[in-house]
Amino acid sequence: MNEIKDSKKCLQSWLERIQEKRPLLECLTNVVTINDVANVILACGASPVMADAADEVPDFVNIASGVIINVGTMQNRGSYEIAMRYAQEYGKPVVLDPVGVGAAKARTTLTTALLRRYPCAVIRGNASEIRTLAEGAGETKGVDAAVGDAVTEETIPARLAVVKAVANRWHCTVAMSGAIDLISDGKVSYACRNGVPWMSNVTGTGCSLTGLTGAFAAVAEKSEMAEAAAYATAMMGMAGEAAYAKAKSLGLGSFRVYLIDALSTILEQDVQPRLELL
Amino acid sequence: MNEIKDSKKCLQSWLERIQEKRPLLECLTNVVTINDVANVILACGASPVMADAADEVPDFVNIASGVIINVGTMQNRGSYEIAMRYAQEYGKPVVLDPVGVGAAKARTTLTTALLRRYPCAVIRGNASEIRTLAEGAGETKGVDAAVGDAVTEETIPARLAVVKAVANRWHCTVAMSGAIDLISDGKVSYACRNGVPWMSNVTGTGCSLTGLTGAFAAVAEKSEMAEAAAYATAMMGMAGEAAYAKAKSLGLGSFRVYLIDALSTILEQDVQPRLELL
Amino acid sequence: MNEIKDSKKCLQSWLERIQEKRPLLECLTNVVTINDVANVILACGASPVMADAADEVPDFVNIASGVIINVGTMQNRGSYEIAMRYAQEYGKPVVLDPVGVGAAKARTTLTTALLRRYPCAVIRGNASEIRTLAEGAGETKGVDAAVGDAVTEETIPARLAVVKAVANRWHCTVAMSGAIDLISDGKVSYACRNGVPWMSNVTGTGCSLTGLTGAFAAVAEKSEMAEAAAYATAMMGMAGEAAYAKAKSLGLGSFRVYLIDALSTILEQDVQPRLELL
Questions:
Q1: Residue B45: which CATH number?
Q2: Does ipTM surpass 0.85 in this model?
Q3: Domain for residue A2, yes or no?
Q4: What sign results for the dihedral spanned by CA atoms A15, A19, A24, A30?
Q5: N or C terminus of chain B: which is more exposed, having fewer CB within 10 Å?
């Protein structure tokens, strides 16, 4: 494994861009983790709006620098198409989180239909969700990745092929989250080895990473989307490592609090991006 | 009071069952405490899905091991009947939380109608809510129990009669939460003396207990439902005691965090189930 | 600046009134911060209900001592008019939070229409939102105040004129939150200098203040509304100061937890109201 050198400096320069621009993100997200997503976006220096009513989305996409669509609870599904249409019209990057795609037909169909019609800057999901988008069908257990889809050192080549297939099919960057994260725009590909298992024991770490990716995407050039997604992924994993170091003797409630602490102070934390160019 | 012996070992064996099976719980719950419910379910080793759209509920009930219905905010009420119908068809236990029943007509009517038509494994609510289900009408102050409904050592016999009446009427286990908790399936009855008053000073402890009860119910045989609900109730109260010990000099924000900490590490906490067979 | 003397004793007497009456607040609020709003209301000794379905709102307004309407996510907008109508009929004070008014047409139009038809006890918002209500149009960046609207020592007279104009136009108390908060009913006016910048780096401090203001308004006489809103504002800022002292070396996750801690123990915290009669 050849980790990228000076990656913490590179992360710092991404965060400086975010804190300089303070991008507004229009977020259509689920009601389970909506508060975490807003706080994570604030913690990195960006600004969230979660107004998802169909007649308001165009106004908010217009003033935003990026759009997040997370299909977790689908109660606001009528606004997804509107948000993607206006994002296309106004040239704002969309980060899509296909939560639970593969587990229920309605969301699989809807997500695929959206991808067919509108451009997307980044798709971020777990291995089962990304595989579903590659194959048009998949097996997931609720909103968690199926065990058989896990990314290990041995399965990196096979999983990366899936990531690239989805990236090429939809002309976007794809970030597959797991024990090892894989990120690719079809040409440039990254593996990220940050993170801890506890991150899947609190709800919202995936949705929060999608929010963080939205902040990075909102300050990225089109050609930088894979790098943006890779550094957002690394930052989330680093925060998990820093939080775990403090919370492991306490429990999951403290872990969640320290995650936000770590995100808001990530450059001062004693953790490093563990990114490899594949 | 004759506390059940070896009750902590018994709780441990329930938790081992949950962590072995990692049951998926399809949760139709309120938007106020939805995040807490998800985190509590994760903290005990189960897995939550909160997707409540009518056209997705059948798919999720199908892959789930149990169903939770909490009528707290009613925004998803159109899905309750679908969830209970499919739970009956697929043989999944339903845990129902009749939040605020008695305080507004719409929810009283709807909840009673659901109970008339579909089986329920456990009903968990406060004393005013359970009394409303027994009498068809009741008096509650919002979502908290009325003072006149409090369970004290003196009122145990009268309150237990109400619990048993509801259990017998709907052929299910009933868990009435309060200073003393009463749980009964009409034959086997428990009193639980765990918990601290601060638990009613943060929102969501009742909803969280409903989630926890769902995890226990999902790994229980039908004949064990009262025991499952009793141990879930004890575990929540124990977590409250452990959290209060750490948070009492700090405040309610810390208390809420330590509650989740304690739930995720309950066997290591210096607290015991205080369960009595009545 | 002439700070009001004995202001902490005055805050104490407000809190005693709240804890004596334990007012029930019917809250129609946004889904992003709904949990925080409920917990803040509980932390000061009042009791929240967030049931927002149109057919239930009349029942809950009837048993409540006050009503909160926060237009943050608008998913429950069909209930606003019902809540305000029944609040008028039953004589319950309404606290309105015009979140994001000025940023999207739909909410500006709706909020203004509500104010034209129904009485409101307190409007609480940021400078851009209040200016929009004064001028019928405004510029905001999402849900945060525009930089040009900031309240500084120099701009107090100009901003206070806006606050008074809105108060006089809608015959209510107006609380404009910012680095310096301005509160007026058109006759009595306050400046509040409590608070810390971190309060705008976590989501929900504005919504939480609206909830807190609802608790104070629910125990206030009509003639005391400006004082009620001023002390609620001071209490929120004091909690921010106390939380920042503990969290500044940790991060934003801890800050949010300590905010609730401080609200639930505000009289024991080493912070003072910094209120001035203008």
A1: 3.40.1190.20
A2: yes
A3: no
A4: positive
A5: N
